[in-house]
Amino acid sequence: MGGSFGGGQRCPAMFAHTDSNAKVIQQLREDPDVQRVARLCDHYFRSYIPKLHHLYDNVLNLLHEDNPEFERNFPNCAWAGAHVNFSLAITLRHRDFLNLIFGFCAVFAVGSYNYQLGGHLILWDIGLILEFPPGTVILIPSALLEHSNISIKLGETRSSITLYSAAGLFRWCHNGFMSDKDFRSHASPKLLKKWFAYRREMWREGLDLLKCII
After folding, report:
1. Burial of 165: CB neighbours in 10 Å, binned 0-12, 13-18, 19+
2. What would the pLDDT profile of 172-198 be if each residue is shown by its tens digit?
3. DSSP secondary-structure letter at 5?
């Protein structure tokens, strides 16, 4: 739920849903406890990675100014989209390639399970297996690090909320509210040269945005 850009979309937009699903999703978005979780995740994001949080928040503001129909998914939350998984929320080994390469997503876990025996978060690239107790928030660079979860025991339950922003939203704003394809077709050779040079050096900007206050 929320908004995104990519996968054939012509411009950033809120996710489309069937009428029945839209009602359930709207109830989730308006639920005080779900909003409280979103604010908690945003608080950690803003506290630990303030420069990156500012970028995410600013992009949402720009998208809404350009298109008022593009709304914040949750009040006071800098991520554009969210996935909600119920009951047996387990993810297989993967990277979120459509997210910003130096960006972070937030994962909140809840349920009734023995976190010492299951539900762990595995970060494969750096060889870490982390206990993930119910009620815990973890911020991870999900496009950069390959990650997965350990399954839980039969009879246990584990749900999760993942907050994220697609990389396409950042590119759209950086291009002056157009896709990469449209930008390349309209830009002058001189501007296009600068554009490609900026893309090659973007990792440096990413490192600067990841500087923490602790």
Report:
1. buried
2. 999 999 999 999 999 999 999 999 999
3. -
3-state secondary structure of 36: helix
Q: Letter for the amino acid at 193?
A: K
Boundaries of domain holding 16: 3-209
Which DSSP string do the residues of 87-124 spell out, in sequence order? Answer: SB----SB--TTB-TT--EEEEEEEE--TTTS--EEEG
φ/ψ of 179, rounded to 5, equals: -75, 165
Sequence-ordered list of residues with C-beta below 8 angstroms from that of 52, at least 6 positions apart, any chain: 45, 102, 103, 104, 209, 210
- Count of the separate structural domains present in the chain: 1
Residue 139 lies in a domain: yes
State the CATH number of the domain containing residue 11.
2.60.120.10
The two three-digit tokens of residue 75, written as one number: 């009040």
Query: DSSP for 68-82?
Result: TTS--SSTT---SEE
pLDDT digits (tens, 9 = 90+) for 151-179: 999 999 999 999 999 999 999 999 999 99
Query: Tell me: the pLDDT tens digits for 33-53?
Result: 999 999 999 999 999 999 999
Reference 80, options 140, 167, 205; nearest CA is 167
